Amino acid sequence: MVPDDVDAAWRFLLFNWIVVGTMAATLVLGVAVTNFSIELTGVLVAIGYVGVYAGFAHANARSPKRRDPQVMFVLGATAQIVLTTAVMAPMTYVAAATNFPMQDATLLAVDRAMGLDWAAYVHFIDARPALASWLNVGYAMIGWPLFAIPVFLAAKRRYQRIEEFTFAFGVALAATTIISGLVPAIGVYQQIGLDPGTLKNINPGAYLDQLRDLPPTRDGVLRHLDLLGLGGIVTFPSFHAASAVLFAWALWPVKWMRPIALLANGAMLAATPLNGRPLFHRRCRRCGDRRAGDRRGAPGRASHRAAANEFCAAEADGAGYRAGGVTRACKKARCAINAKTIKTAAKPTCVLT
Question: Domain span at residue 347?
């Protein structure tokens, strides 16, 4: 790449800072005009991480002797991607708090009008363990391309493509956040009357996480946000689906990556209606442990289940979350929650009615 092309890509990177800064200002305004608050620890971690990466990128760009476009654009893009996710994650909660009427029934009606049978699709995949496992892995792969794409493109000296990807990533995330507030939904399982606890091979992790966070957010109960523990609460439009297309497009200039990108992102796209694994790492807000299923071992899972039992016991005594006509009720005190199921010894009890 000639110097003029590097300079043009660098100007695009500087423009992307304006875009990300606008998103951050919107979050600050959203928090200021609502009763949301954000845990300071997560904010400091995000600022520190972004500051180190952005600082090295800009210092390298200004150094006449050590100026290396690969360092500039990989570190600069990584800083912007991290800051974008740190800003937009809490914005999804602010958007959900607008509490517009739930649109699951309307969205399902549109799907059926197009001939889509979600129950048949779910049962078809769940009955094939190998296929379900592949889709589970594909859905969980949303994180790595965010950091791998700048590296692969920099190796090909496609610096302009890096900045185009960073810009498109931010726009896609902002668009899904805005639309999710205007057209809120909580997922297809409760609409088609399918209990995720009966699934043997599909892991509907984020659907269950969303049941925990979306109703209290809409109801005004959940208002203190920790950046280190936020989950994905956006059902429609699916950012996983948008990411699958965006990642495949970004990696297309790297010819040897094309088959891998198509296979991996195809799996993510096919798994979108099934898995619902969240984009951002989360911690259980009640027990402080990482979500069950993250390989920490039995003690973490046991602690999470114990906290869940206590929570469900409180709901069984009459406490519950109501949001826009959607009630989350736990009909019995004895329940266990992990990344795969919500169930009792006899049958699932934490449900949407």
Answer: 297-353
